Each structure stands twice: as C-alpha cells, then as structure tokens.
Amino acid sequence: MAELPRQENPNRLINYRPIFEIAIGFILGIAACGALPERGSIIIGAVLIIGAGFTLFMLRSPRSTLFLFAAAAGIALTILMTPKPAEIGSYYLTGKVTEVDTEANSGRIMLTLTDVRLNNNEYGNKVRLVVKSVSYVPEIGDGIYAKAEFAGWNASKANSTGFDEQQYSYSPGIGLKLTAAKAEKLMTNTLPLYQALASLRRGFLNISDRVFGEDSRTISRMLMGKLETVTDEREQLYREAGVSHILAISGLHMSVIVSFAGSFVPKRHKLLRLALIGLFMGAYCVFAVQTAGILRAAVMTFIVLASSCLEKRSDHLSAISLAAILILLFNPYQLWSTSFQLSFAASLGIILLSPPINRMLAKLNFPLKLGISTTLAASIATVMLQMHYFGQLSTYTLLANIVAIPLFSIVLTLAFILIGIGALLPGVAAVLAYVPRGILFVTDGFLNAVSNMPNAVVNVKTPMALACVAVLVIMFLISDYVMRPAHKKAEYCFAAVLLFTLSAVPSII
Length: 509
Prior knowledge:
The protein is an alpha+beta fold. It is built from 18 helices and nine strands. The chain is 59% helix and 11% strand.
C-alpha cells in the first residue's frame, strides 16, 4: 500500500477526503436513527437540514454542509427503509422460498420468504419463518402457505453488548420473524432465477465434494461463504485461535478473480479489461453468499482498478468510504451486521495503521514484516469488536495469523484452480487436491497447538459499542491522515483514550 506523504501542517487538521467525511456523516445519521425513536429521529433530521442550510449560506462552509446533509440523509433513508411493524398475533401467511436452512440441534427448518402476504395483505419485506415440523421440507422456489405466529422480538437477548434482535434481523432485510407448526406447498418453480442460482451452487458443492472429500465443507466456505448456520469443529478451532476471518470472502478472493479475468485481455485495452474484470467480480458476488465483506472487497477492488485505468492515483480511504456508502444505501441496517463491522474495521485498520507500523518495523530485516504489520493492524482494529460480540480474546492471534494467512492464501489459489479442473476431470483434480488438503492438515495441527497454549482464549467482559468506536477514532488520530505534529496527535489520542476508558470501564466493572 502506498503511503501518504508525511507532511505536518499546523493549519490543517486532516488530509481532506470528502467521500470519507460524507461516509462518516451518513453512518452517524443511520446510527442516530437506530438509537432514537422515530419522532426523535425526525426532529434531529430537521435540525441537521436547517444546520446544513445555515453553514452553506451563512458560514460558507461546503464541507460542514455536506457532512450535515449526509447525516440527515442517513436518518431519512433509515426511516424510509425501516420494515413495517406488525402486531403480535396469528397470521395466515403465503410467500415464496428463497433460502432453506435446517437447524442441526432442533431439527427445525428456517425459511426466508419473499413476495409475502399476511392475512392476504402485501408485506413489503422478506420474512424469516421457523417451521417446527419437518414432514415437508420446502425447496427454493416453492410457494408455501402457513398459519404463523408473531411473538414479538426477543427482548431477553438484549444485554450489555447492546445486541438488538430486531436490528440484527433487519440487517439482511428480514422484516419479521414468525413461527409455524408446519408449512404446506401451494406451487413450485415460482422463482426461476433463485432456482438456477441454487442449482449452480449445488453443482459447485458436488464438484467440491468429489475433489476435496472431507475438507469440502471448509473449501466451499472459503470460496462461497457460509451456506449454513452449523458451526463445525474446524471453524470452532479457527475462532479460538483468532483466525476465523480467513474463512470469509475478502480482498484476496478478488485478487484471484482479477488475475484470472485480466489474463483474457491485454493490459493495453484498459477499458475492455476493466469491464471484463467488473463482470467477473459481479458474477462472483451474485454466486457466493452475499455479505458486507464480499461487497466491500468488490467495490474497493473495482475503484482501485478504475483509478489505474483512468490514470488517477487511488486512495484506499476514499475507496472504502464509497464502498460503505453504496452498501448502506441499499440497506442502512447493514450497519448493525457483524460481518459489515468486522470487515470494514479490519480494512480500516490496515489502511490507517499499516504505514506507521511499517515505519516502526523498517529497521527489522526479515521477510515477514509486511505480513506482521497487516495482521497487527487488522487485529488491533477488530479486537474490541470480537470482545463485544463473542466475549472472548484470542491471546496468540498475531502468531496464528502470521502462519495461517500465507498458508491459506496458497490453499485458496489452489482451490480456485482445482474446482475448475474438477468440473472436467474430477479424478485428476482429486489427486492434485492432496496438496491443499495437506496444507490444511498442517495448519490445523499448528492452530490446535496454539489454541492449547496457556490462556490461549480468555473470557472477557463485553465492552460497550462506544468503546469499539473509540478504538477506531484513536486509529485515525495516529494515522498519516492527521496532519498535526506528533505532540498534537498525542493530545488528541489522550482525549480519545479517556473516552475509551469511560466507555469500557463501566462494562468491565
């Protein structure tokens, strides 16, 4: 990553990035709307609009105007896209199945439905339906009927972490969570595009099973994202070692896609090459399980490539800001998605902290210092969020990541190649697959040894969300984007650390 010029300017606070400031305002507006009742959000939004007009016409400050307007837009969009509330009670429900998942322990079926009607009235959002009976297992594309119950949102889950089941359900676009004793089929083949996509995914899984055998589940998760809610032993091991993020789709996947798609068009045909790469990345985003992480990686990668194509200098902070805005425009409640928060926090950590860490490690003459700086930056940025959501701290996560990330990069690249070979020559691919499977075996042994070290996993009190925000603020203040001298940065950091302490200590006590 190219570093910013290290210029200290007493007249400027930050290296100005308009997209970044707009993104911050937009996110703050969404967060305010989620924390306040609707009437309070409307009042705050009106005040922000008035403030934006005042700063534009009276203070002549377009930067402040854009920031306030972005915050007001975040509030307005969140209000408009909040699912329609429903009263507690029974409903006659019809809908079309887009996702099917079976709970391993209870045997219940969880369905995601679209084109939903409740008591013959159209409902504008998707619905999650938990079916207790397994006498009929719906398939994607089935139109179903059920007598369902809405018992309200589970308030007992709200705890010191601030977890809100309603906001958590809204983040993937689920407006209601209903339960039913059984579901009945009304029709089939109602969603041909969903069915075609499901058929492609089943074909992919079949190839993966033939090629990778017992490791197929891990490889499929690495290439397509998590297709089921069940957590296996390997995933639990990775979580305890602090490397579970390597199973998530990220920028590494996009680099493989870019290399593959770019090989078809010479570099001199820049626009054609960019269009083909964009087409491949878009198809991959549709094919894989859609999460904030894959969308962020795709948008950032495309922006960087477009900048190079247009012979403009790319800026990673602006790219990640634009990615956040685009994702939240389609669903502002993605802000409360764990995937969104962890993915963007890790990327921000790499963008903001890698350059100063690289400078500190510059005198060390060994080949792993770039990997150490990247891993350390991402770990610092996400550690509070992991404590916030999981109540655990992986003590040796830096050691585990330094070894696991390079190995998994090899596994991922080989897996992409072998899936392609497996579609034509599954026997040959299965033999060649012993290489990545062997690497997985070695990695598992290493991570198992790390997780069995003394105090490898420490259970901690869950800090408040404000403490997680304070860490991100501190990261920005010590980054190269703040253009004040070191002693001024230290003063800002002291204030941010004080804010962090005030937010973290109450939850720990």
